[in-house]
Amino acid sequence: MARNVADTPRLRLRELSPDDAQFAYELNQDPEVIRYTGDGPFGSIEEAGDFLRAYDHYARYGFGRWGVESKETGELLGWCGLKYTADVNEYDLGFRFFRRNWNKGYATESAMKSLEIGFNQFQMTEILGRVARDNHASRRVLEKVGMTFLRNDVCHDEDAFILSINGDSFRKLQCGL
Known about the structure:
Order of helices and strands: EEHHHEEEHEHEEH
Oligomer: single chain
Shape: globular
Helix content: 25-40%
């Protein structure tokens, strides 16, 4: 059974498990969903299950990319969460949702909760967001959760932006300051 991590008014963030292989497989089948990610589609449901079995971020760090469920229906809408990259000692926020769930505020709602967890529970000092230069919708989500431009970058051989937010800025945002 996947462990629940946090709730928002409409969503439940929970750990993904190999039981979610069908979801992961289907999510990565839509070329528009993975367009800016550098990821390809899984070759099979079994391959998606293998990926989820090997995913060790929950055990290693206590956090990771979480499944995002509708509290109303229990349907997995996509995923959102935090990632630690040890070789550069950076935390980043990422999200991916089925196209049918775009423009409903799910990415913003789950991203805010993920930042809250990162700053309040794991005492992260800065969290980054990487976004392809042409991925305007994802950049808007990062800006809505308080991230600001940090630098230009290249991600998956594409021109990209790095945005960031620190804990103090996030807490001020939460307080409406």
